[in-house]
């Protein structure tokens, strides 16, 4: 047992039943005692040991909007650009209908799926080549969807910036769209890094995607270059909140030290009953049709509150 586990948070140990956001009907936990244990580790460690790892599509963006309007994915934003060649959308749709069922097939081994994902990514890159394109088109479409971020996303990102918590937005989608939405929504603060697939250009024409390829099954911290500035920032931060809307997102913290304390939050919206067991087995907290950032914000608020208590206690003991 580590020394942290023998310590108590300032103000005493917190119980799950005393956190209203975690006792609502739509908030489900397979093992509340384990969630409680990790939350108390977070309180002891404070903001300086925290990092956030989040998916983008339907995690930072909503799974449904109030008016029932569809929220496009990051690739959907790109596909809506008017200047794309006529056959582009038809060909990308064909690829989607071929490879998407493979991506979500519950019976195919991951190692086999990876080969198909590489194939999909390579063919998509070939399609996204050889014609002129201006980023301003993405910006124009993305500007229509800044309202589609989960409720209280602005406050959540402001909290993260204020507390100096590094935030990694991991997306197997299109990074150009992700960055555009976040920037135009005024949440792309200096502590936020986007790791995704970005367009590349050659001689003024699109030339596929930059390396490395980010797909559903390598979207984790092992793809961070150990010499990168971001790796230096987070490799000692062993208290992690992971957020996603699909089962594969739960592995986004793979590659962090085994001693890390991680809370995985899963946003479940589609086919709730059919998916519930799988989500409950995969995520620590499952939020059913919750289109807000209230639960992660609650965790940050508790961490900040106890951090202030710790500072006050240290100040008193030094007097």
Automatic annotation (TrEMBL):
Annotated InterPro entries: HAD-like_sf, HAD_sf, Pyrimidine_nucleotidase_eu
Compartment(s): Cytoplasm
Protein origin, superkingdom: Eukaryota
Gene Ontology cellular component terms for the protein in this record: cytosol
Enzyme class: hydrolase
EC number: 3.1.3.5
UniProt catalytic activity: a ribonucleoside 5'-phosphate + H2O = a ribonucleoside + phosphate
Any one Gene Ontology molecular-function term assigned to this protein's record: magnesium ion binding
Major place of residence: cytoplasm
Keywords from the UniProt entry: Cytoplasm, Hydrolase, Magnesium, Metal-binding, Nucleotide metabolism, Nucleotide-binding
Annotated Pfam families: UMPH-1
GO terms of biological process kind: guanosine-containing compound catabolic process; nucleotide metabolic process; ribonucleoside monophosphate catabolic process
Family: Belongs to the pyrimidine 5'-nucleotidase family.
Protein name from the UniProt record: 5'-nucleotidase
Gene, per the UniProt record: Dsim\GD11843
């Amino acid at each position: 047992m580590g020394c942290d586990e023998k310590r108590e948070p300032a103000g005493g140990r917190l119980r799950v039943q005393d956190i209203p956001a975690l006792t609502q009907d739509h908030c489900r936990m397979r093992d509340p005692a384990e969630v409680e244990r990790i939350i108390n580790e977070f309180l002891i460690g404070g903001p300086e040991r925290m990092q956030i790892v989040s998916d983008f599509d339907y995690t930072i963006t909503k799974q449904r909007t109030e008016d029932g309007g569809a929220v496009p994915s990051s690739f959907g934003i790109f596909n809506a650009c008017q200047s794309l060649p006529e056959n582009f959308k038809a060909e990308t749709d064909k690829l989607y209908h071929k490879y998407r069922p493979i991506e979500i097939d519950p019976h195919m081994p991951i190692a086999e799926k990876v080969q198909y994902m590489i194939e999909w990514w390579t063919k998509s890159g070939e399609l996204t080549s050889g014609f002129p394109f201006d980023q301003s088109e993405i910006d124009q479409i993305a500007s229509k969807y800044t309202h589609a971020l989960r409720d209280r996303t602005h406050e959540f990102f402001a909290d993260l910036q204020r507390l100096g918590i590094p935030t990694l937005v991991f997306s197997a989608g299109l990074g150009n769209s992700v960055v555009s939405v976040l920037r135009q929504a005024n949440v792309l603060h200096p502590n936020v890094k986007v790791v995704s697939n970005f367009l590349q250009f050659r001689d003024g024409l699109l030339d596929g995607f930059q390396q490395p390829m980010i797909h559903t099954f390598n979207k984790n911290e092992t793809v961070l270059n150990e010499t990168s500035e971001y790796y230096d920032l987070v490799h000692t931060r062993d208290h992690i909140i992971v957020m996603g809307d699909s089962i594969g997102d739960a592995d986004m913290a793979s590659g962090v030290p085994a001693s890390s304390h991680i809370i995985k939050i899963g946003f479940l919206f589609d086919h709730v009953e059919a998916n519930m067991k799988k989500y409950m087995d995969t995520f620590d907290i499952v939020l059913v049709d919750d289109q807000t950032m209230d639960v992660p914000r609650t965790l940050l608020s508790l961490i900040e509150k106890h951090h202030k208590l710790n500072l006050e206690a240290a100040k008193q003991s030094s007097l």
